[in-house]
UniProtKB/TrEMBL annotation:
<dbReference type="GO" id="GO:0003723">
    <property type="term" value="F:RNA binding"/>
</dbReference>
<dbReference type="InterPro" id="IPR000504">
    <property type="entry name" value="RRM_dom"/>
</dbReference>
<dbReference type="GO" id="GO:0005737">
    <property type="term" value="C:cytoplasm"/>
</dbReference>
<dbReference type="InterPro" id="IPR040224">
    <property type="entry name" value="RDM1"/>
</dbReference>
<dbReference type="Pfam" id="PF00076">
    <property type="entry name" value="RRM_1"/>
</dbReference>
<keyword id="KW-0238">DNA-binding</keyword>
<feature type="domain" description="RRM">
    <location>
        <begin position="15"/>
        <end position="98"/>
    </location>
</feature>
<dbReference type="InterPro" id="IPR035979">
    <property type="entry name" value="RBD_domain_sf"/>
</dbReference>
<dbReference type="InterPro" id="IPR012677">
    <property type="entry name" value="Nucleotide-bd_a/b_plait_sf"/>
</dbReference>
<dbReference type="InterPro" id="IPR034200">
    <property type="entry name" value="RDM1_RRM"/>
</dbReference>
<dbReference type="GO" id="GO:0005730">
    <property type="term" value="C:nucleolus"/>
</dbReference>
<keyword id="KW-0963">Cytoplasm</keyword>
<keyword id="KW-0694">RNA-binding</keyword>
<dbReference type="Pfam" id="PF25517">
    <property type="entry name" value="DSRM_RDM1"/>
</dbReference>
<keyword id="KW-0539">Nucleus</keyword>
<dbReference type="GO" id="GO:0003677">
    <property type="term" value="F:DNA binding"/>
</dbReference>
<dbReference type="InterPro" id="IPR057652">
    <property type="entry name" value="DSRM_RDM1"/>
</dbReference>
Length: 166
């Protein structure tokens, strides 16, 4: 079944992973890099945030990782929980558990995040602000009772210009 990935900031709990039992040896920046490297193999990440454990807990860190896709988050959770990935002790990884009844305001992505998301899922790089208009000319030929359709495409490029405001 296909998954709809909206061009919006992911807020759903099924797109959020909580990662804990991160060792206290490396810096938060080094852990961020390691987590990004490991979890980006499963899909496009919206964010990776690393936090120090609370003062009452053991020294170390935990992280919150957000995916654009709930399917990618679930695959990452199953593959990484209780595994030795980049440190000597296994990580604990769980999907978010916020209740579904909680509604959050939807925020649009900024333009660079939209480009990154489109490039990832549509498979190419380099978007343009130009509008390209495709015109299709088709005609039918009848050949011994069979209908054949031939198409000829013409592309016209026009530079996008916003309307002038008076």
């Amino acid at each position: 079944m296909a998954e709809l990935v909206p061009f919006a900031v992911p807020t759903e709990s099924d797109k959020t992973l909580l990662v804990w039992e991160l060792s206290s040896g490396p810096t938060a920046e080094a852990l961020h890099h390691s987590l990004f490297t490991v979890f980006s193999r499963f899909g496009l990440l919206y964010s990776v945030r690393v936090f120090p454990n609370a003062a009452v807990a053991e020294p170390g860190f935990y992280a919150v990782i957000k995916f654009y896709s709930s399917r990618d988050a679930q695959r990452a959770q199953v593959a990484c929980d209780r595994k030795l990935l980049f440190q000597k002790s296994p990580l604990r990884v769980r999907l978010g558990t916020r209740h579904k009844a909680v509604r959050h305001q939807t925020f649009a992505l900024n333009s660079s995040q939209c480009q990154e998301l489109a490039n990832y899922y549509f498979g190419f790089n380099g978007w343009s602000k130009r509008i390209i208009k495709a015109t299709c000319f088709s005609w039918k030929q009848f050949n011994q009772g069979e209908e054949k359709c031939l198409s000829d495409f013409r592309l016209e490029e026009e530079e996008f210009k916003p309307p002038e405001l008076n």
